[in-house]
Write a structure and sequence with these properties.
Elements: H1 3-12, H2 16-33, H3 36-42, H4 47-66, H5 72-86, H6 106-119, H7 122-125, H8 129-141
Helix pairs in contact: 2-4, 2-6, 2-8, 4-5, 5-6
Length: 145
């Protein structure tokens, strides 16, 4: 049984917050796995601020919300990635520096992000990602469809 099956089990058990934070982390992981050139093109303004709030904080949200119920291999990889993100030096993570992604410190982050995408079976989840995000956001907010 792969992790995508676990995600669907959570969804079927009305664990919408778990599913939501995990699904919100997928685009963040995809960004973190991109090449430096693609990362630079994707962020219009201060890359450090945008990456921290939009791409790194969702990782911590997954750890906080469902870290204890994640399979060990996924949790360990996610914890390692979060530690790598938090360990970036000022040189590699400086506000308003469009070239931060060129620093060598980003390579282990890219590798760990890709590994995590593979472990969570993001390719199996992606076709349903928009519907999962919408449905889970509505459920968490108490919105009836």
């Amino acid at each position: 049984m792969g992790f995508s099956t676990t995600l669907w089990e959570w969804y079927g058990q009305d664990e919408y917050e778990r599913v939501l934070v995990l699904c919100e982390a997928i685009p963040a992981l995809e960004f973190l796995a991109l090449t430096a050139d693609l990362q630079q093109r994707a962020i219009p303004d201060c890359p450090a601020c945008a990456v921290w709030s939009e791409m790194m904080l969702p990782l911590n949200e997954v750890l906080s919300t469902c870290g204890s119920v994640l399979p060990e291999q996924i949790r360990t990889c996610l914890e390692r990635l979060w530690k790598l993100c938090n360990g970036l030096t000022e040189v590699a993570f400086h506000c308003h520096d469009r070239l931060i992604f060129d620093h060598d410190e980003w390579w282990p982050i890219r590798t760990a992000a890709q590994e995590l995408l593979d472990l969570i079976e993001s390719l199996e989840i992606n076709p349903f990602l928009d519907d999962l995000l919408l449905g889970c956001r509505n459920a968490v907010r108490g919105v009836k469809r």
